[in-house]
Design a protein that fits this description.
39% of the residues are buried. β19 and β20 (335-339) form a beta hairpin. The chain is of the alpha+beta class and 408 residues long. It has helices spanning 2-38, 47-78, 84-103, 108-112, 149-155, 240-246, 268-272, 306-312, 393-399; strands at residues 121-123, 134-140, 143-148, 157-162, 165-172, 177-182, 184-185, 188-189, 192-198, 201-206, 212-214, 220-222, 232-233, 236-239, 251-253, 291-297, 300-305, 314-319, 322-328, 335-339, 341-342, 345-346, 349-351, 358-360, 366-367, 373-375, 388-392, 404-405.
């Protein structure tokens, strides 16, 4: 009888350890499965579930590692007394636990879209970029650089320094949004990586604090820096030909040879417009992939349909109580936005002959696409440029729910 009780006790202990190994393996696998399930393209993410998924991914490497270590100890503990079938199951649990632990250290998004860790540049004359291809143009001081969108659409992020200012050049193809942010927050120099996607817009992670940032707003939505805001660095989306004419001595981001074949094709926009969106824009009456130029002034936002801008060539409007001018460049494709006032007095403009520049109706001075008067009584004066960027309507509406929409 005592022997029977001893055998039963051993079986109970074995069952307990086996159950513990199973639970630890499930936890290890969950550290991988939960973030993969929640943070994936073409799936809506609620704020709470996204926060949970990000938290799981943050603690995943050490939590899965602890669980894998527990499973390993249990295998050693039970190996001598376990039957062959139990040993096989234990080995399977151990392999799954260790595989899950290894996978928690893998950034799947950077496996799909490899980072450009050491960006290199070439002169505007040497760059092999089509004249009508778009570039994100950045100028700080006397230093000007262009980042081809077909290159950026693959890498998503380029950490760079221009004019002594550390910047993160970012592009999210799914929402057609290119923005440039300062990499300095609270005197910390941050280095950004691609971290996933949130309702169709890219997520960034800084290596220094592991905080997660929304690409289209520059706001930290998770981690030690949650609630902090990146400082926007002005950029323009221009055709390469126009940028080159403005900055003939500028530098252009070179292709990264191992991944150049993966860069977006010339007609990438047509392919993206067919993708599924997860933000419902039905009530707005505007299609999710309608391309907008978003402008925010004094906390008030307005979206200008790109086709309306290109048709009008010049739009005078008000945003946040400020007169603004939305003007198309001489290439018929690039767009800039300026304050429509000089010395706090509104100025009325008309499009120049042959779509070249514009003239103010008061003095007849001629103004170029940089917003500066180059002929007439006001020669030498320049309008103040306003930050603006392209965005598909679903993303702009999602992050600017109170935005007005320009109508002709």
């Amino acid at each position: 009888m005592p022997q029977t009780q001893e055998i039963q006790a051993v079986r109970n202990k074995t069952g307990y350890f086996f159950a513990l190994a199973s639970v630890c393996t499930i936890i290890s696998a969950a550290c991988v499965a939960i973030p993969l399930f929640v943070i994936r393209p073409f799936r809506p993410q609620g704020a709470r579930e996204l926060e949970i998924a990000l938290a799981v991914r943050h603690v995943g490497p050490w939590l899965a590692g602890v669980c894998a270590a527990v499973v390993l100890l249990i295998v050693f503990r039970l190996w001598k007394t376990a039957r062959i079938g139990t040993r096989i199951v234990l080995i399977c649990l151990l392999l799954l636990a260790f595989a899950s632990t290894s996978f928690t250290h893998v950034n799947i998004f950077e496996k799909m879209f490899h980072p450009y860790d050491s960006p290199s540049f070439e002169s505007a004359n040497d760059a092999k970029v089509d004249s009508d291809d778009r570039v994100l143009a950045v100028k700080v001081g006397d230093e000007a650089r262009a980042y081809p969108i077909r290159t950026m659409g693959y890498h998503h992020i380029v950490n760079d320094t221009i004019g002594g200012v550390p910047i993160a050049v970012t592009y999210c193809t799914l929402c057609h949004t290119g923005l440039v942010w300062s990499r300095v927050v609270e005197r910390k120099l941050l280095h950004f990586r691609l971290a996933g996607i949130n309702n169709g817009n890219a997520l960034l992670r800084d290596e220094q604090t592991s905080s997660i940032w929304q690409q289209s707003t520059g706001e930290a939505i998770f981690g030690p820096l949650k609630g902090q805001q990146l400082k926007l660095v002005r950029s323009n989306e221009l055709t390469f030909a126009l940028w080159k004419s403005e900055e003939p001595h500028g530098q252009v981001l070179k292709s990264d040879p191992p991944y150049a074949a993966e860069y977006d094709p010339k007609d990438w926009e047509k392919h993206v417009e067919k993708t599924t969106t997860v933000v419902d824009t039905t009530r707005s009456g505007i299609g999710p992939h309608r391309l907008m130029l978003g402008v925010t002034v004094a906390g008030q936002s307005k979206a200008y349909p790109i086709e309306a801008i290109l048709a009008a060539k010049l739009i005078q409007d008000r945003v946040g109580g400020l007169p603004v001018i939305v003007v198309v460049g001489p290439d018929g494709a690039s767009i800039r936005v300026f304050e429509g006032a000089l010395e706090n007095k509104p100025v009325i403009f008309a499009r120049g002959a042959g779509d070249q520049g514009m003239s103010d109706l008061d003095t007849g001075s001629f103004w170029n696409f940089q917003g500066c008067a180059v002929d007439g009584r006001l020669t030498g004066q320049c309008l103040v440029e306003i930050d603006a960027h392209k965005d598909y309507w679903f993303d702009w509406m999602n992050h600017h729910p109170e935005s007005a929409v320009f109508k002709n």
